[in-house]
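Try this one yourself first.
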């Protein structure tokens, strides 16, 4: 029996395997959720990647992080964190400085303007996340979280 994903993507030939069908469902769902978040962020002049960096830097506090540390913490990986941070710095949303002990190391922290830019988004994003998933029972959400963690752990 063909799953709903085959109809949604208008694929006439059967999907190869159960694993492929699950994979396509994960991608389709992630895209649907992230599109709504992207629209909300665009209304505030940010991309998802920019918000992700600002959120990470807010959590890092006054000390800040290196580009490598930021990249390691991103939800969705960006191959060029430095360029992303460059754009945020030009907008005054982050501050950067070279390490005194090792000039090769550049630290980045969120600026007051960056905090001001993402502060109002906390409630809106929380509300959107609730709207997107509130129709699921808490136990279903816990099961979903567990399954997704298993997929990332491959076990």
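Now uncover the answer:
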């Amino acid at each position: 029996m063909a799953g709903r994903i085959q109809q949604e993507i208008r694929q006439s030939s059967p999907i190869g395997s159960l694993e492929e069908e699950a994979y396509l469902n994960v991608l389709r769902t992630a895209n649907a959720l992230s599109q709504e978040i992207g629209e909300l962020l665009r209304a505030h002049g940010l991309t998802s990647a920019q918000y992700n960096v600002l959120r990470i830097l807010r959590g890092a506090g006054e000390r800040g992080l290196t580009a490598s540390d930021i990249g390691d913490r991103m939800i969705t990986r960006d191959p060029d964190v430095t360029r992303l941070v460059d754009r945020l710095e030009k907008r005054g949303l982050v501050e950067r400085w070279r390490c005194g002990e090792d000039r090769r190391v550049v630290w980045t922290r969120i600026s007051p303007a960056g905090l001001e830019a993402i502060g109002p988004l906390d409630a809106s994003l929380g509300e959107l996340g609730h709207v997107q998933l509130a129709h699921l029972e808490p136990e279903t959400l816990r099961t979903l979280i567990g399954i997704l963690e298993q997929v990332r752990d491959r076990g």
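Discussion: Helices lie at 4-8, 18-42, 48-60, 67-73, 81-90, 112-118, 121-133, 138-153. The longest helix spans residues 18-42.
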